[in-house]
Amino acid sequence: MHKIDDMNIIGTKWVFRNKMDEDGNIVRNKARLVTKGYNKEEGIDFDEIYAPSARLEVVRLLLAYACMCNFKLHQMDVKSAFLNGFLNEEMYVSQPPKFEDHLYPNHVFKLKKALYGLIQAPRQWYERLNNFLLSKGYARGAVDKTLVIRKYDNDVILAQVCVDDIIFGSNNNTLCEEFIAAMQGEFEMSMMGELTYFLGLQLKQLKHGTFLNQSKYCFNLLKKFKMKDCKEVATPITIN
User: Fold this and answer.
1) By residue range, what is the domain housing residue 63?
2) Domain count, the chain
3) What is the pLDDT of residues 129-138, one digit of tens each?
4) Alpha-carbon gap, residue 12 to 108, rounded angstroms
5) Is the preceding peptide bond at 122 cis, omega within 30 degrees of 0?
6) Which of 18, 96, 193, 238 lies 20 to 30 Å from 167 when distance is taken between CA atoms?
7) Distance between CA atoms of 115 and 93, rounded to whole angstroms?
8) Which positions ≥6 away from 208 have C-beta within 8 Å?
């Protein structure tokens, strides 16, 4: 820890939330220490903050391609993804609430890696992940930079990155195993098996096609606008 002087100190807070599966069941209770990044100043606390984000159209194209080439997509999750990004700036945060050191109450922590809540955290995570994948021989997509590709003769492996969720697949299972081993060797990962839920899409990958539905997404919309008990009608609705 460092003693507070004329440093620009960023506050911290705890965020608690429940993580749910595609059926709306609670699978994990999460507690995360985040920074109060809204009080930072551009040019002092951060420079560039842009980070690419996966588009739903690209995900649909990837699903269609995998279905056409007859291979299944799988999913992995990076645990605490933003904590993997290295900071370029010198930053200090206050001691976590309820975990203050009573012997050194005026000391703060100097960050080496990003924390959730920092404006540049997504960029630093994508930068580290991108550099790692490029070092392993992968190439970024020409149009969508969150899609990475690697080709071996007639075989290919594709991976789509959406923050801390990664979906991937190949017409050669050996390439998938190598990708999993490489990612688990560099980051702390959770393997989630065959892709069943991603960006609001519920999926069922079968031999004769991939089936999609958004029942959970629709249910969440109804719940948000307090319309769960509304009257059902056919579409298009009748005039009266």
Assistant:
1) 2-224
2) 1
3) 999 999 999 9
4) 11
5) no
6) 18
7) 10
8) none
